[in-house]
Amino acid sequence: MIKTLQASIPKVKHRIQNTVLLFLGILLIGVVLLSASLGAYQIPLESVVGVLSSKLGLAWGSYTEPQSQVLLNIRFPRILMGILIGGGLGLAGAALQGLFRNPLVEPGLIGVSSGGAFFAVVFIVFGAGLTALSPLFSLIGLPLFAFLGGLLVTLLVYNISSHSGKTDISVLILAGVAINALMGALIGLVLFYADDAALRNFTFWSLGDLGGSNWSKLGIATILIIPALAMIMRLYPQLNAMALGEREAYHMGVNVQYVKYVLFLSSALIVGTAVSLSGTIGFVGLVVPHLIRLGFGADHRLVLPGSFLLGAILLSTADLFARNLVRPAELPIGIITALLGAPFFIYLIVNFKKVKY
Amino acid sequence: MLQGNNIHFCITDRPIIGDVNIKLEPGKFTVIIGPNGAGKSTLFKILSGDIPCSKGEVLYNGKPVNSFSSQQLARIRAVMPQHSSVSFPFSAWEVVELGTLNAPQEFDQKEIIEVMKKLQIWHLRDRSYNLLSGGEKQRVQLGRVLIQIWKKQAFPRYLLLDEPISSMDVSLQHLVLDLLNELKTRNIGVLSVLHDLSLVGNYADEVIMMKNGNVSFQGNVADVFTSYNLEFLFGYPIQVRKFNDGPGLLVHSLPLHHINHRLSQVQ
């Protein structure tokens, strides 16, 4: 299968890649419809289509007012948030793997998520002054701080583990372990000084799921994540060249420093925003790019958009399970992604020893 | 012309290269030889723009190397480092195709096919690069580098190769060196680090002989590629002879115990 999909003549390859993306897109729409329909309050598919089409000025299928209320106020923002965050984490994972030139890299693993979480906690506990300063801060303060934390940790880990453009994976993982431990300790320290309101705030936030999604949060996520997604996707030829090494990419005419900074900033922005809005959701950024490469080759022309679509599918599906497995209660979504992702990661490490790609 | 003027390079005050002057002319095949640790690879990296030199300057067609953007530089020179790994499962075709990354217009696939066929890697096009043998990988990397300067251009260009044929079998080595000799006629100056002295003697136009970070001899093969100079360079008995009084050169070096045996017989 892989052989035919990697058919080398670009015209054929591009047609296959486009078909794969189309297929993933259709799958995503399917998952979206299904998650809109299933939940503590069941809504038949016909009504879901009815509400959607009435918003577009059409009248396909019928629906009742409560169904419309649940869909418009609760389920649609949540589903769209799942798509944005799942897709964003998938793409950020692919970008970081390309940057570090290693398939084992993941935002949670190397400490980017916990760095974002630490800064988010700092904002929750000490940010009252800032929010008093300007109402804007109450909207974007949390994602902004999480972004800064994510960016700092990404730069730190990169400088620790990379030497003249080559990343030492064992140093990278160890640095991730150390940073995760450090950030955990710092979060504990900050919480020690927190007052009750801030603690309650933190507890809600750290439970981390898509449950709190609403249109205004979705708006913030869109403004912060979409430009970062676009910046990364434009860089697919450069990421392909970087797979050979930074020096080789430079020889082939890539402005390596520029590409690196765009990738640092964009992936930190995505991960930071995701962390601030939905807590740390692990393993999506690790598993998704892998599955795409495994099935359809390493060309970033497909890996980047494919990781976005598959990440969106995976997180939406995980959220579907989170909402329906213990109905009417909910499981935190992080539990589901970790249950799927951790065994897969172990499988990867075992295989990484055997075949080094 | 690619010029290196008064190049010095130090690592923590320890000189790696001390005062090297070289010229690489388009249309010529120039080879750097020398013992391990002579500074060949360091000089190579300075010339290709990877690292700046501590003193001196590198000029491409009269302009300093650091005045070019990476894109501009990629149009006038292609570089093949000694080792390149590929971190994801790209196919051989995809690796070669990367050489067209900087091409100003849509690149003609026919030329990629032509290069791959010339290097005898066309049949490997769909195979994963990381599963290829050492010699196959080297030819795929070479294909990537060649495609970068394959299209004819009006201005002189340069091809820098660090031990490009070290893992290839003897027939492929001749194939590649023939190809390089063909390429230099396109107003391209070829500079390569090589270790096989008889190949150097038979294919190179000019030789740069390096020892201890300095150039000991440089010039036309006919002038400087002599037994005397090579023995001095490597500190080992080496003999250069004409093959059947034709233009071909044979370069010998025998194991020391054979030489000692012969000496004892003479005595």
Please explain how this structure is put together:
The complex is a heterodimer of chains A (357) and B (267). By secondary structure, chain A is mostly helical. Chain A is built from 16 helices and two strands. Chain A has one domain (2-354): Orthogonal Bundle (ABC transporter involved in vitamin B12 uptake, BtuC). Chain A has helices spanning 2-5, 10-37, 45-55, 65-100, 112-126, 128-133, 135-161, 169-192, 196-206, 215-234, 236-242, 246-251, 256-278, 284-296, 300-324, 333-354, and strands at 162-163, 166-167. In chain A, strands 1-2 form a two-stranded antiparallel sheet. The longest helix of chain A has 36 residues, at 65-100. The radius of gyration of chain B is 20 Å and the shape is globular. Chain B is built from ten helices and twelve strands. The longest helix of chain B is centred in the middle third of the chain and has 15 residues, at 134-148. The model of chain B has no long low-confidence stretch (mean pLDDT 89). Chain B has helices spanning 40-48, 70-76, 92-97, 109-118, 134-148, 170-183, 197-203, 221-224, 227-234, 256-266, and strands spanning 2-11, 14-24, 29-33, 55-60, 63-64, 77-80, 157-162, 188-193, 206-211, 214-220, 239-242, 249-252. A six-stranded mixed beta sheet of chain B has the order 6-7-8-3-9-10, sandwiched between helices. A four-stranded antiparallel beta sheet of chain B has the order 2-1-4-5, with helices on one face. Chain B has a two-stranded antiparallel ribbon with strand order 11-12. Chain B has a single domain, classed as P-loop containing nucleotide triphosphate hydrolases (Rossmann fold, 3-Layer(aba) Sandwich). Chain A binds chain B through residues 3, 6-10, 98, 101-103, 237-238, 240-241, 243-245, 247-248, 250-256, 293, 297-299, 356-357, and chain B through 48-50, 69-71, 73-75, 78-79, 81, 84-95, 97-99, 101-102, 109, 125-126, 130, 144, 148.
